[in-house]
Specification:
221 residues, five-stranded parallel sheet, single chain, TIM Barrel, alpha/beta
Length: 221
């Protein structure tokens, strides 16, 4: 565990106390809206993931993608602690998580997928893509044997179960490394249009890759 994570855990009681004081003084709003992001979750991690969600449900209300959209647009008030669950990259384990855990807990999530990744049928090519684009330089030989990608049939299952599909670029490109407007359009706009054509739905949500501020840019925005 990273030192910063250890410090966060140790200081948690103090954080909670300070937050309560600030809320009472009106310095901090008691209402919150947060997004919780996951990636691939292997079968031996499912129990731990289930326990995490149950722990979170004690204090947080899991909102649907539609509710989240209304909240950020100001069409629905943000009251209490609200949490949206999302998954990046489009690994096949996401389908098992949805069917084994999310659906039982009545939690609806957004699954952000890479338009070129969901087209791959060959298992070895999946691992090649992961090594080249998702986990830059990752050794293919170290890929778990169970690793595979969500394909169109899997995504349609998620949609039928009430979940939402979003775009996570065309090739998992770091947007700050895109050198032209046309390249950005391919990664951001065309990726969503390709997913729309494959699934026959409207794509309204986008998650940029890697997540840190240095991976985004003014042009991408």
């Amino acid at each position: 565990m990273l030192l910063q994570h250890q410090l966060l855990i140790i200081s948690r009681p103090l954080q909670l106390m300070l937050r309560k004081i600030c809320c009472k003084l009106g310095v901090v709003s008691p209402n919150r809206l947060r997004v919780l992001l996951y990636h691939d979750i292997q079968e031996d991690q499912e129990e731990s993931f289930y326990e995490q969600l149950n722990w979170l449900k004690r204090e947080w209300n899991f909102v649907t993608p539609d509710q989240f959209e209304k909240m950020i647009l100001g069409e629905m008030p943000i009251k209490g602690n609200n949490l949206l669950l999302t998954f990046d990259d489009g690994m096949l384990s996401n389908l098992a998580i949805a069917e084994n855990i999310l659906n039982k807990l009545d939690i609806k999530a957004i699954f952000f997928v890479i338009s070129e990744f969901i087209k791959i049928k060959d298992t070895f090519k999946v691992k090649q893509f992961v090594s080249k684009y998702i986990l830059d330089g990752f050794n293919i030989n170290n890929c778990p044997k169970t690793w595979s990608n969500l394909q169109s049939t899997d995504l349609k299952k998620l949609i039928k179960q009430g979940h939402t599909i979003g775009s996570h670029t065309k090739t998992h490109k770091r947007l700050s490394n895109c050198n032209s407007k046309s390249e950005l359009e391919e990664e951001i706009i065309m990726s969503a249009k390709n997913i729309e054509l494959i699934l026959g739905i409207e794509i309204k949500h986008f998650a940029y890759t890697f997540g840190d501020i240095d991976s985004f840019s003014k042009d991408a925005c």
